[in-house]
Design goal:
Among the domains are: 152 residues, no CATH class; 127 residues. The protein has a two-stranded antiparallel ribbon. A two-stranded parallel sheet has the order 2-6. The longest helix has 28 residues. The protein has 58 helices and 6 strands. It is mainly alpha-helical. 60% of the residues lie in helices and 1% in strands. Keywords: Cell cycle, Cell division, Mitosis, Nucleus. It holds the Pfam family PDS5. This is Androgen-induced proliferation inhibitor. InterPro entries: ARM-like, ARM-type_fold, Pds5. It is found in: Nucleus.
Length: 1259
């Protein structure tokens, strides 16, 4: 109402008129009185009509825009009271005025923001008044009502804060709720204002606004539901976004929040998400998956149970084509497992598929989800063996990152729950394989895997922080309950750490020497060698050099390193020293590569598992197990026998790695006392432990009084103990006796001489003792032992059948099976087998007795030729014959490992020996293959069988037993890879020119030149025109060629082609004039050529590190020096068509092929044609007189003699190396031909059976 109105304004009693001319203070006083009076008025219908002009007067623009805040507040309070008193019919009728008044009131409500304001009570009164009578409902009649509401809601959300009481917030709701619940429409703008406050950033930054919005949604859910549904329909189904609305950009976040606040408003919305899950747009699917994953997985969520169709559709996204969607699904699986027992089966089923996902990030997340679940609530994972098995499978993943998490997760489970009293059955079952699985990781070729297993062993399986006794309990339990493969891995792990420790100790020792050029060169070499023991050798080299400089400049660091690698350091001192060293290396952060490299090295060399105190505890436990102590046996959950056996094996392993910790009188006394236990199974491992200790320092030197107790016991075992006791007793005496060793062994020898007869119950024991004395001390009893071998072992034992049980009479059709175990053999057969072994040990000890070796090879060859029945009686049991020929074959292999005596077999004997690969008895084939593999894998290149024997693997191509064939193939691949690895190591470490020249003698590619004559001489190959025979021979060739040609980056077609052509230009060395034999040889060459032509995928020209060379022991040079054998010796159907566009005639093929596609590396020593012809003739002479100066497939080059032991540390086979050879002081030719420290230029040093040292040109 304008001020120009002439209506008379009537004021309530006691109130003075409020006019424009008043000063601010006076106006405030009068308005206070008026406000107080209006406040006291009730809502009497029509009672206050006389004050309508006054109501219109105070709503004048003059007052609404008055400069004083207090005046405006009082006017607002008065207007609010007017609205209350006159409700529901307010005196204000003009829509424009009503809008102005409510905009004014909204503005005044802004004063609620600060509860500390002196005028806050009036602002609160204003809010209360407006809420009480729902004054804002008047606006429903206005066209602009939504604009007013939007402004009011915005204001309320902006001003609400922590300082407001619950009453204030309640009145705010009372003002706002009716405007939604009683409205005919809720605009999108208003919806946006409300709902944007339940989203980020308001949710976290303005929590009171979030709470207000949340309460609003709950109180007005019924009204808001259709509007919310319409909004989501608009956005989700129709895909129309209103850019002006904040919530349009955050649809999925909004659904998530609303589901939390008031799920009922989404009942019609959630089913629509199924369409989004199946959208062709990846981002849409990703958004809906992310939303549903959160909603389904939250604690107490019932969404999956209430919306089963949607849940099924969501599970389908675990197999989405998009990697990030699959990853997102898997990431949330942890929350499902933790929060929803009813959904675990569904999630487990989906994870089963995803753990085999082609994408590594998805497989990684599967492992992380399960491991994280286990960390938070182990019972979930332990109750589900499936989940544990998923992690188990991922320990074999092709990516190290995934393997690492899987292994660490399993180790954490093992450590955390091993000793829990209430372990569920699945966990109890799991810990039985977890420790095995972790240790199996050591079979991985990656250095990262090996370091990880070593770390987990010391931190989780046997935590180094535990007190010594507890630590040994864990170690004993671990070793006593792991499987055989894990046990081998544990042994290999200890050997590797010992090798690293030895190398680092030698490096530290060099730093103590005065600085000179020679020392620096040696240090540089040692550092280069040390890189082999760490991941990424090229990267770590720089940091190792830096560490070496650090050692030179910091004497304290050097002293600490000496402590770490000290033989007798305690675990505590080792840990303390490592901690101090690490402090000197800088900050322990990922970016400090120097710190991390040296930390890895320290982890490998520090001794934190075993020391003297720990060993005392372990020996006590083993004694307890032996005596049946229930405390020990209950802890291990094993019987006394098994626990004792495992405990003694563990002591044996530790004595090899930590012999110095055993060298204490109390420990040695307790070990020696175990030898008096009646159980014959106890003493051999104890003797083995004492042998290892003696190799470190003889007990006779340090503790003569203990030696005086030990010697009589060992003498008794050597003469009248079991064969095992005798074997270990001789070894133990050899390493631990010092001054009186000759006298001790003379007594034993005298005694066993008397017992070498079947009349003595100790015949077998005596033979075993004799063999080990001959092996360990060949020079001390040279003549007596030679006489015993000749008269007693050969003539009386091996060349005669003395007992009726050994030759039972005519063979009947009801003969027992072809094979029995050794324990079931007759005594004579058992003794004969020991006699064969004894002769092998005798020759190995002699090393260079050529005549004895030749005689022995002839006898062993006869055993094989006559199927084990040396005397051809025709009356022996097949099982005994099988064992005897197997023993003979194994003995030949063993002898062939030794230079000197091992060179004395002939080609025919070589071919006959190979027949055991195809023996009629499957057990013979199996065990011979194992012996062959062990011989080839042992100590490359000096302690193993020559490369000739790799050719034996070709005969496994005829194997009918699929399982055995597969096993032999694995042996062959392992031997091939080991040789390739060794070649890589010597080329990377910058070996000398001489090292390069020896590469061909190790290279597995040359096994083909030995396989070809073997196959040509095979008894089943009789006719070179017989297609079925040739097909079988071809399968043998492919058996060895497949691993050489496929998955081999170094494969060179030209080399193989030249090699086969050169073989075909030779004759057979055994029967050079026999046409059939030569034709068989050439036919095999043609088959090999056909295979490389048909199977080669890349004919790319490559450099090969060696020229093709042909062994004169098996091939004889043709009389015509210009002879080129181009004829094909194969039937037409087996000839192979050469590649198109070729120009040179290939032997054994029907078309021409391009010139030899090989770049042969120039020889380090060039020869003239005349020299070459001389070389050829020298090879010819050798082929005619192979026994005079044979040089077989064995390298004479040693990179570093004193590092040789470490080169053999990759075979998971045996803890102990071959028993000690005679000392360097030994006299006679044997000492000159020893492998260590041998003269590289000495003519007696063998290089290769197929190569004369002088022959470096092409044959």
């Amino acid at each position: 109402m304008g001020r120009g109105d002439n209506l008379t304004i009537l004021y309530p009693p006691g109130c003075r008129e409020v006019i424009e001319d008043l000063g601010p203070d006076e106006m405030i006083r009068r308005l206070k009185t008026l406000a107080h009076t209006l406040q006291s008025m009730g809502q009497d219908d029509g009672a206050y009509q006389e004050y309508v002009p006054l109501a219109m007067h105070i709503a004048d623009d003059f007052f609404l825009s008055y400069p004083s805040r207090d005046v405006q507040l009082l006017i607002a309070c008065c207007i609010a009271d007017v609205l209350r008193v006159y409700a529901p019919e307010a005196p204000y009728k003009d829509p424009g005025q009503v809008k102005t008044l409510f905009m004014f009131l909204i503005k005044q409500l802004g004063g609620l923001k600060d509860p500390k304001d002196p005028a806050f009570k009036r602002y609160f009164y204003l809010l209360e008044n407006l809420a009480y009578v729902k004054s804002f409902n008047m606006c429903f009649e206005l066209e602009d009502c939504q604009e007013i509401f939007c402004k009011l809601f915005k204001l309320m959300f902006n001003i609400v804060n922590d300082e407001h009481s619950g009453k204030v917030k309640s009145f705010m709701l009372d003002v706002l709720c009716p405007l939604i619940n009683e409205s005919d429409v809720v605009s999108n703008d208003l919806l946006d204002i409300i709902l944007s406050n339940v989203l980020e950033p308001a949710k976290s930054q303005r929590k009171n606004a979030y709470q207000l919005a949340k309460d609003l949604v709950v109180k007005c859910s019924d009204t808001l539901e259709p509007y919310i549904q319409a909004f989501f329909n608009h956005v989700l189904i129709l895909g129309r976004e209103e850019k002006t609305l904040t919530i349009s950009q955050k649809v999925y976040d909004l659904i998530y929040e609303l589901n939390h606040i008031c799920p009922s408003v989404l009942l019609a919305v959630l089913p629509q998400l199924e369409f989004k899950l199946k959208s062709s747009d990846e981002e849409e699917r990703y958004g809906s998956v992310s939303l549903l994953a959160r909603m389904f997985s939250e604690k107490d969520s019932t969404l999956a149970l209430n919306h089963k169709q949607l849940w099924t559709a969501f599970l389908g996204r675990f197999n989405d084509i998009s990697i990030k969607i699959r990853t997102k699904c898997v990431q949330y699986s942890m929350h499902f497992l933790l929060n929803h027992p009813l959904l675990r089966k569904d999630i487990t089923d989906t994870l089963k598929l995803r753990q085999h996902d082609s994408e590594e990030s998805v497989r990684y997340e599967v492992v992380m989800a399960i491991v994280t679940t286990a960390k938070k609530d182990f019972s979930i994972v332990s109750d589900s063996e499936d989940l544990l098995n998923f992690v188990k499978e991922r320990t074999l993943d092709k990516k190290f990152k995934i393997r690492k998490e899987a292994m660490c997760g399993l180790a954490m489970i093992y450590k955390k729950h091993l000793n829990s009293p209430d372990v569920p059955p699945a966990t109890r079952h799991a810990v039985t394989w977890i420790k095995d699985k972790i240790l199996h990781g050591y079979y991985m070729t990656s250095m990262d895997d090996r370091l990880l297993v070593e770390r987990l062993l010391n931190t989780c399986l046997v935590p180094y922080q535990l007190p010594p006794e507890d630590r040994m309990k864990k170690l004993f339990y671990l070793y006593a309950t792991i499987d055989d493969n894990a046990s081998k891995a544990f042994i290999e792990l200890q050997k590797h750490q010992l090798a690293v420790r030895k190398n680092v100790a030698e490096l530290i020792e060099l730093h103590r020497k005065p600085q000179d050029e020679e020392r620096d060169r040696e240090i540089a070499y040692r550092l280069g060698h040390l890189t082999k023991f760490l991941p990424d050798p090229l990267k770590v080299q720089e940091f190792l050099r830096k560490f070496s400089q650090h050692l030179n400049s910091d004497s304290q660091l050097l002293s600490l390193m000496e402590t770490v690698v000290s033989h007798d350091v305690s675990c505590k001192d080792s840990v303390d020293a490592v901690t101090q060293i690490l402090k000197k290396l800088g900050q322990p952060v990922m970016t400090n590569l120097y710190y991390n490299t040296i930390k890895m090295l320290l982890e490998r060399v520090s001794s934190v598992m075993v020391d003297r105190v720990a060993l005392e505890a372990l020996v006590s436990m083993v004694e307890g197990a032996l005596n049946g102590d229930p405390t020990i046996l209950d802890t291990l959950n094993l019987t006394s026998d098994i626990a004792t056996e495992k405990g003694l094996k563990l002591l044996f392993v530790l004595s090899f790695v930590y012999p110095s910790h055993f060298l204490h009188q109390d420990i040695l006394t307790r070990l020696i006392s175990l030898l008096n236990v009646p159980n014959t199974a106890i003493s051999p491992p104890v003797l083995a432990v004492l042998t290892c200790i003696g190799k470190y320092k003889p007990i006779g030197e340090l503790y003569p009084e203990l030696a005086s107790v030990l010697i009589p016991v060992c003498q008794q075992f050597a003469c009248s103990g079991t064969p095992k006791q005798a074997k270990h007793a001789v070894r133990c005496l050899h390493t631990n006796c010092t001054s009186d060793a000759d006298e001790v062994f003379e007594k034993i020898l005298e005694k066993i001489k008397e017992q070498l007869t079947f009349d003595s119950p100790h015949f077998r024991t005596s033979v075993v003792s004799l063999g080990h004395i001959a092996f360990n001390m060949p020079d001390r009893f040279l003549i007596p032992i030679k006489n015993i071998v000749s008269r007693k072992i050969v003539k009386e034992l091996l060349m005669r059948n003395q007992t009726p049980a050994h030759t039972p009479g005519p063979v009947t059709s009801e003969e027992p099976e072809e094979w029995v175990e050794e324990e079931e053999l007759t005594e004579e057969s058992s003794v004969k087998m020991e006699g064969i072994k004894m002769m092998a040990r005798w020759l190995l000890g002699l090393k260079s007795d050529v005549i004895s070796a030749q005689k022995t090879f002839r006898m062993l060859n006869a055993f094989i030729l006559h199927k084990g029945d040396l005397l051809e009686t025709g009356k022996m049991l097949k099982s005994e014959m099988a064992h005897l020929r197997l023993s003979s074959g194994a003995a030949m292999l063993k002898i062939c490992e030794q230079k000197g005596v091992g060179d004395q077999f002939t080609s025919e004997q070589f071919y006959n020996l190979s027949l055991l690969m195809n023996d009629e008895c499957p057990q013979v084939r199996e065990r011979f293959a194992i012996k062959l593999h062990k011989g080839l894998a042992r100590g490359i290149p000096h302690k193993c069988l020559p490369l000739d024997f790799m050719g034996f693997y070709a005969l496994a191509g005829l194997e009918s037993d699929r399982q055995l064939r597969g096993a032999v193939r694995q042996y062959m691949i392992a031997d091939i890879n080991k040789r390739r690895e060794y070649i890589r190591s010597i080329t990377m470490s910058g070996g000398s020119e001489k090292a390069s020249s020896q590469l061909p003698h190790i290279m597995p590619d040359y096994m083909l030149v030995f396989a070809v004559p073997l196959l040509a001489h095979h008894p089943e190959f009789t006719d070179p025109s017989d297609v079925s025979q040739l097909t079988r021979i071809r399968s043998c060739l492919w058996f060895i060629l497949e691993p050489l040609m496929t998955k081999n980056d170094a494969y060179c077609f030209g080399f193989y082609k030249a090699l086969i052509e050169q073989m075909k230009n030779h004759k057979d060395a055994v029967k050079p004039e026999d046409e059939l034999t030569n034709q068989k040889l050439w036919a095999v060459c043609d088959l090999a050529m056909g295979l490389i032509l048909s199977k080669t995928t890349s004919f790319e020209m490559k450099e090969f590190p060696s020229d093709p060379r042909i062994p004169p022991m098996y091939f004889k040079k043709h009389e015509d020096p210009n002879f080129v054998n181009v004829k094909s010796y194969l039937p037409l159907e087996l000839q192979v068509t050469a590649p198109k566009g070729s120009t040179k005639v290939l032997t054994g093929v029907t078309k021409k092929v391009s010139n030899s596609m090989v770049v042969l590396k120039p020889n380090t020593q060039m020869h003239s044609p005349q020299d070459r012809s001389k070389d050829d003739s020298s090879m010819m002479e050798d082929s005619n007189n192979v026994t005079n100066n044979r040089k077989r497939g064995r390298s004479g080059y040693d990179i570093e003699d004193d590092l040789e032991d470490e080169e053999d540390s990759t075979t998971l086979s045996s803890v102990l190396p071959t028993p000690s050879a005679p000392s360097a002081s030994s006299t006679g030719p044997a000492s000159k031909k020893g492998r260590l420290g041998g003269n590289l230029t000495a003519p007696a040093n063998r290089i290769s059976s197929y190569l004369q040292k002088e022959t470096n040109g092409k044959t």
